[in-house]
Amino acid sequence: MKLVSVIVPTYNIEKYIGETIKSVLAQTYTNFELLIIDDESPDSSVEIARNFNDPRIKIISQKNRGLAGARNTGIRHAQGDYIALLDGDDLWLEEKLAKHIEHLENNPNVGVSFSRSEFIDGEGNSLGIFQMPKLQDITPGHLLCRNPIGNGSAPVIRREVFDAICFQDDLHGQMEDWYFDEHFRQSEDIECWFRIAAQTDWQIAGIPEALTLYRVNGEGLSANVMKQFDSWEQMISKHRSSFPELLAEWENSARAYQLRYLARRAVRLKDGKMAVKLTHQALKTHWQIVLSEPNRTILTLIAAYMLYVFPLTFYRQCENLALQITGMSHKFRILRDRFFFHCSKMEWMMIRG
Fold this sequence. Notes:
Strand content: 15-25%
Largest sheet: 9 strands, mixed
Oligomer: single chain
């Protein structure tokens, strides 16, 4: 069994870190090391981690560097053939690692294997809906427009992939290997995935199961919506000179997709005014998203205006009904995609055999 290095950045998450660690220790794939990166957390997160008596757990402390810096430290210390990322407030289902290792072992051209994710609330209760990203044939253009991996707790990545995109910087007073760009305090995920897609030949591919439980926290998100857009613009500026043809083709439409995504976040935060503003900006930037993804674009516009115009109590009733319908649709798609995924896997095994 190949070794997997699980990297969990830890900062101010004492409410969740215990359950996160338990979800790793419960994995059916047992050959892993669990690297807890203490990013100078001011609460009891690290003390909670130290209460677990398991030789696979290693705690590494550092001065605060943010999420990208914590992940870089983890990758530099990692001994595994595969590196799995898990945010300290999210959870994994027990077969998470096993299914990703199988996916990567059976697909030697895949460098990043990710899963779908189920949304949970702050108490760990399912919200009944899922992240349903594109799973195959992911290009750099797709990475600019949206984040098919979904979140930072979904992927398991070959070590060679990080080696291929490694670069050096001396932001902290000494030259170090970087994999995630620590100049980004937001959008660090998508910036990294974009470099993998644009700079390497490794494929990024997903499996249909929802193996990650992604926690939706409203804390601090409202103030960060526009900061996230600024960070996305920073990413575009960084890569415009390196990939001029790619950016010329995709930048405008990608900006519209990003604005629409942020509008959906504003809807989730119940900020109708911001949701309407962002949706209008998206359509003004690249109105063709109505043609390329009519359902998602029109539903975003309807939700934004309903939230803006109607009383919140009425909106919540409509939202609950919509979430129930969406959840049923997601579950059906997951079952359907799992069937075809396993059929294609069996066909591939027969051909190889």
